[in-house]
Amino acid sequence: MSKILEQENPLVDIRNLKQYFSINVGPFQRKPLKAVDDVSFSIRRGETLGLVGESGCGKTTVGRTILHLYKPTAGEVVFDGRPIETPADIRYLRKKATMVFQDPYSSLNPRMTVSDIIGEPLDIHKAYANKAERQEQILELMDRVGLNSEHAARYAHEFSGGQRQRIGIARALALHPEFIVCDEPVSALDVSIQAQVINMFVELQQQLGLTYLFIAHDILVVRHISNRIAVMYLGKMVELADSKEIYEHPLHPYTRSLMSAVPQPDPKVARASHRIVLSGDIPSPLNAPSGCPFRTRCAYARECCAESVPEFQEVEKGHFVACHRIKEL
Amino acid sequence: MATEPLLQVEDLHTSFFTPAGEVKAVNGVSFFLERGKVLGIVGESGSGKSVTAYSIMQILAPTGKIVSGSIKLDGQELVNVGESVMKTVRGNKISIIFQDPMTSLNPTYTIGHQLVEAIMLHTNRDKKQAQERALEMLRLVNVNEPEKRIKQYPFEFSGGMRQRVMIAMALACEPDILIADEPTTALDVTIQAQILELMKSLQKELGMAIIMITHDLGVVAQMCDEVIVMYAGSICEQGTADEIFYNPKHEYTKGLMRSIPTAETAGSKLQPISGTPIDLLCMPEGCPFAPRCSNAMKICLKSPCERMRLNKDHMSACWMNVKESMENEADKPKKKKGGEKNEQNP
Ligand SMILES: Nc1ncnc2c1ncn2[C@@H]1O[C@H](COP(=O)(O)OP(=O)(O)OP(=O)(O)O)[C@@H](O)[C@H]1O
Ligand SMILES: Nc1ncnc2c1ncn2[C@@H]1O[C@H](COP(=O)(O)OP(=O)(O)OP(=O)(O)O)[C@@H](O)[C@H]1O
Ligand code: SF4
Ligand SMILES: [Mg+2]
Ligand SMILES: [Mg+2]
Ligand 2: does its nearest atom lie under 6 Å from the Cβ of B50? Predict the structure, then answer.
């Protein structure tokens, strides 16, 4: 298990991270919802790690817990070698690491001007000496993300979806972070605009040496941008490998069906491809199955799968899978 | 054309009359749909895909109006027929499913109640027969334990199950046409695969035609025989799926195809379409795509290009095609070129 953690010089190192939410299930009854359940992985400096999985599997919660927007129920986050434990650690983390959200419409305050939106983190962290310096930084950030700096005094609602996403990114860059959790940052955008924003993420990464955790449900987008891809299911990590490897040779039964289900934008390929269609629905995380979280929909499930949680282990170099039957598949 | 197409839309214009002015959401759309075929409509947000569908169903918002054009179902004109005729068309002949199944299901009634009501409304089955039919439909769309499920409320269903219930409801009356407006956009990839597979097999089994509205080119490639590409309220290109994907002829479609991430693009730059989507309140004079088109010529900025037939499976409305055909003509001056205009489907 610890092998994954021993990547050279990881910028972000997550060990046995858990995030349980306490949920009301009756008038006086509460139950833990295991949104993230014992997840370990690391992200190298300058790398993009893609994170995919079905809605509700815990992707956003992983991102937010890493940034300590939620206090971890258990487990450890080590950032650039520094374990995040005390409030001072958290303040340090918040400067170095930030988040970009999916919905450029609702994540920006429509009553604020672009310059106020981008300037807000600068204000909070008092990252300038005077007004002129503040303005200069804002204009530079706008320029960086391809926004016309003459529009600094406009309101967010006057911009298109792609432009709003740029505003969100400029804001995220304000404090010169090293690590950005990108939570579905292009999902709300049309294909053509999506490509503009994806290119910008790549350019910024190259210029500024950024490290990304890139959450998305569009596998084609994730494959394009990521060095490695991690797959989650019901709060657990089920597979992690190089993005080409996991796309072309998925090992976990869930990843196999996921990859086979990706609609291919090519009629001949689509007609010829064999989709592994899963039956049944995703169980509620409040009633997660015992053992392997995927066993209720898995065609390979045996008794052992209900008995214990399969270990997340390295089966080929850099290829991690959590499945009891991995050797027999 | 020997037999009449199932659905024929001709020069449809639909507008919304808002305080800011007339929004020409659909601007001269023409196409036809044959029995048993799957027609895809793609295009970016706001290009008029849903408004085209809502015009066919005549379920537009109160400010919306079909300004001109014709919509014929089995030869019968539907524009201005009146609400009583449309009531028999909706559900019986044409059904629609929407992106968000939760908004189309009533949270206060059981799934069974809603299915039975819909079936009784559109067929002359009595309550008992309708209940039988409801169970049969739930089984058809792979809902486990339908006897138990039928007594449950929408909130007890997952998103994918709700969408299957919507399909069951839409198909309960065996419509000739199913319009699916982004039926899987809100769903996960594996659930999407279930729903698409289900739609395809039901379509084959029941022989109905489908209009599949989506912005996902992967869904189009998987499902559709024919494809319409919309931009700013008009059809810019139309053809068989193979023609559109392997031989796109409109600059917008070409740009769209180039901007999809593929196995080859990993680690390199994508080729996006530059600029921002069009504002329908200030439409350009010429080709609506001209302001974003990297190959725009003078004529593109001046007047929109008429739809041209390129071959029997393909039509496009792009001045580049005119230019190319003129160049070809110049190359081989003897051969005659047949570029009939303003036709309908390939
Ligand atoms: N603040 C919260 N309080 C209680 N439960 C939560 C909270 N945030 C998330 N959850 C639950 O935790 C689980 C994981 O949610 P999360 O948002 O991380 O999923 P996700 O993978 O990001 O899904 P999506 O793809 O839909 O964004 C879900 O069951 C969700 O309902
Ligand atoms: N009720 C309305 N009032 C005013 N304008 C409207 C109304 N409904 C739609 N429109 C406008 O009509 C145009 C076409 O909208 P439509 O919903 O058909 O787009 P679409 O192609 O379905 O987009 P999407 O992919 O986002 O669903 C848009 O510019 C939209 O703003
Ligand atoms: S552990 Fe068992 S149930 Fe889980 S994926 Fe492997 S075979 Fe399937
Ligand atoms: Mg999320
Ligand atoms: Mg729509």
Answer: yes
Looking at CATH, the fold of the domain delimited by A12-110+174-322 is given as Rossmann fold (3.40.50)
DSSP string across A66-122: HTTSS--SEEEEEETTEE--SHHHHHHHHHHEEEE-S-TTTSS-TTSBHHHHHHHHH
| Domain residue extents for chain A | 12-110+174-322
Q: Let me know: does A19 contact A58? Beta carbons within 8 Å.
A: yes
Shortest CA distance from B292: residue in chain A: A192
- How many angstroms separate the CA atoms of A53 and A59, rounded? 7
Ligand 4 centroid to residue A176 C-alpha, Å: 24
Residue A54 CA: which ligand 1 atom is closest?
Answer: 25
Report the residue of A262, A281, A282, A296 to disrupt the B interface, i.e. the one with the largest count of B CBs within 10 Å.
A281
Q: Chunked in runs of 10, what are the mean pLDDT values of chain A (329 residues)? A: 56 97 86 95 96 93 96 97 96 94 74 91 90 94 89 86 88 94 90 90 95 95 97 97 96 96 94 87 87 95 96 96 94
Q: What is the four-CA torsion angle of A6, A12, A17, A19, rounded to 10 degrees?
A: -170
Q: Is the CB of A305 under 6 A from ligand 3?
A: yes
CA-based nearest residue in chain B for residue A220: B261
Q: Relative to the alpha carbon of A57, which ligand is closest?
A: 1
Out of B44, B191, B221, the one facing A265 most closely (by C-beta) is: B221
ipTM of the shown complex:
0.86
